[in-house]
């Protein structure tokens, strides 16, 4: 993707709407942290004060572009990798290609690393 072609304003850091730029969630009752952020911090039910904002990760600022890039491009990339590999295996398998075993080895290694990456990094999100 050509970064320069995109509108520069996308790179501006915006004050986080959820915590109003403070980095601390005060959306709950009496300035306590809200349920969503409590959940993000892996806390059970109850009132917590001064929790790190779950929306911006406690930074107080959100970079919408980077956020979208990391949260949308990565899954799409790995999904297309997975489907591409499966497609290659099927293609070479049906064609009876002499390189089938090489392709199969390559693809299963690739799939293994993609799956391994997701299971080790985001065990709850994947
Ligand atoms: Zn919150
Ligand atoms: Zn925030």
UniProtKB/TrEMBL annotation:
<keyword id="KW-1133">Transmembrane helix</keyword>
<protein>
    <recommendedName>
        <fullName>Molecular chaperone DnaJ</fullName>
    </recommendedName>
</protein>
<keyword id="KW-0472">Membrane</keyword>
<feature type="transmembrane region" description="Helical">
    <location>
        <begin position="103"/>
        <end position="120"/>
    </location>
</feature>
<keyword id="KW-0812">Transmembrane</keyword>
<feature type="transmembrane region" description="Helical">
    <location>
        <begin position="76"/>
        <end position="97"/>
    </location>
</feature>
């Amino acid at each position: 993707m050509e970064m320069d072609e995109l509108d520069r304003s996308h790179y501006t850091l915006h004050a986080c709407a959820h915590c109003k730029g403070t980095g601390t969630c005060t959306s709950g009752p009496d300035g306590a942290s809200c349920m969503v952020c409590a959940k993000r911090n892996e806390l059970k039910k109850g009132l917590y004060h001064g929790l790190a904002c779950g929306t911006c990760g406690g930074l107080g600022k959100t970079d919408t572009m980077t956020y979208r890039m990391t949260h949308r491009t990565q899954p799409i990339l790995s999904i297309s990798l997975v489907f591409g590999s499966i497609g290659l295996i099927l293609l070479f398998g049906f064609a009876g290609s002499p390189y089938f075993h090489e392709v199969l080895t390559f693809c299963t290694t690739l799939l293994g690393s993609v799956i391994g990456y997701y299971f080790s990094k985001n065990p709850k999100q994947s």
